[in-house]
Request: fold
Amino acid sequence: MSHRDARRAAARANKALILDSEASLESIQNAVETLLGITIIVSAMDIEQHDLSALTADCDDDVKLLYYAPKLSPLHRQQSILHEFSHLLLGHEHTAAGINIGEFSRSFPTQPRKLLGRKSLSDDAEQTAEILADLLADRISSNGRKSPDEPGGLQEAFG
Ligand SMILES: [Zn+2]
Reply:
């Protein structure tokens, strides 16, 4: 997949995500849940032993457990969560190979069927998810900007 194709796929997924309120991590999560018919439970990892910033555990068709590393800066945490939302929006859990990350999987309430993390996904999937995460972050950071020459505003995204 070329970078251009990845950008196109990410832009399409971004456009399909209609928010019912001002863009925020919460409104984006709500929209992802509604669009995909799933519930996402977001929480901090309770152990700090991996260099992962975030991962998603696929425990059930309808419930995804999203974990982020506890020591991230607020911005890095937001980006990591948006990145995981992006994998879900792009349907990557259907193509990911299952990975087992040892000790960490024991901390799940139920043994996950699959963990979505960098090792389980192709570079194309990672690239596309990263671009989509950036687009979603742009929607959050564009909130409240009124300048007409500010690119990436909601008006433009839905125009
Ligand atoms: Zn990823």
In short: Confidence is low (pLDDT under 50) at residues 152-156.
